[in-house]
Fold Transposase.
Amino acid sequence: MPTSEKAHHSLDYLEYNERFEFLNVFSMEIELENSLRKGLPYPILKVIEYLSVDRAGFIWGRQYRLAGHYTIYLLWYD
């Protein structure tokens, strides 16, 4: 927590509150393109890219989506 006014102003650029809807593969690609156009910071873009890439054996995004679908199914079933 910044203690001085100067320290508070130097941290203003760190406040990001972004929401992304990853409903399917196509929406993930669209969200990535929109984020690139908006000029979001590199760490946020890396997370979106990591979850949306699904080629050359790199299927983490697909596995996360499948885990989410199964979790929702099990929560509703139980």
